[in-house]
Design brief:
Layout (H helix, E strand, L loop, with lengths): L12 H13 L1 H4 L1 H10 L8 H15 L4 H11 L3 E3 L10 E3 L1 H13 L1 H4 L6 H11 L6 H8 L3 H32 L6 H5 L1
Antiparallel strand pairs: 1-2
This protein binds zinc ion (ZN).
């Protein structure tokens, strides 16, 4: 139980951050009673629940904050749910509500991406829509153009620049985050047992 290195837990970086984000969405799992109840039943195996889960989610987040902030935003935007179940009970409710984590991450990345398109004629609305599209929001270039009152050509060009910037950023993010998890010994090394 002592020492700086953790036992391998996750098969890759994506599994690690998806787990940490999903865990933090579940308020239920943080309550003392829930922790007490899950302790006995799920305290074995890879331990991705209950008390162990809380600690492991914290360990993953500790590595997330060690990489560059914009890179961390890219991982969070890629792996958090875009929307969460809504239980407000209003008759007009769609039963879904935007996940504030995803909204915050994409909004901040939109501001970061300003460097990619320059200060020129880019509007924040196009950058935000392009950023959301890159991270999985179902939006066509035409819809972005219509929404931002620009030509399809302008929307397409700006989206292409932002996409290139974000793709590069996300690539570095996965590389550096995987590196951090490996240093911390949190990834399962399959090669060691098979050689
Ligand atoms: Zn609602």
């Amino acid at each position: 139980m002592t020492g700086a290195k953790h036992e391998g837990i996750f098969k890759d970086a994506k599994e690690a951050i998806v787990f940490a984000l999903h865990f933090s969405d579940q308020q239920y799992a943080k309550s003392p009673m829930a922790m007490f109840l899950t302790r006995g039943a799920h305290g074995s195996g890879r331990g991705l629940s209950g008390l162990d889960g809380s600690g492991q989610a914290g360990m993953v987040m500790a590595e997330v904050i060690r990489i560059h902030y914009a890179e961390a935003l890219a991982l969070i935007a890629r792996c958090s749910a875009k929307r969460l179940r809504c239980t407000c009970g209003s008759p007009c409710c769609s039963k879904w509500t935007p996940n504030p984590i995803w909204t915050m991450a994409t909004s901040q990345l939109c501001d970061v991406s300003l460097t990619a398109v320059g200060s020129g004629m880019s509007s924040r609305a196009i950058r935000l829509a392009s950023t959301e599209k890159f991270f999985g929001q179902k939006l066509s270039i035409q819809e972005i153009a219509d929404f931002c009152s620009v030509s399809r050509k302008t929307a397409g060009e700006q989206h292409a620049k932002i996409k290139e910037f974000l793709k590069d950023l996300e690539g570095r993010a996965w590389f550096n985050f995987t590196d951090r998890l490996e240093i911390a010994g949190m990834l399962i090394r399959e090669h060691e047992s098979s050689v």
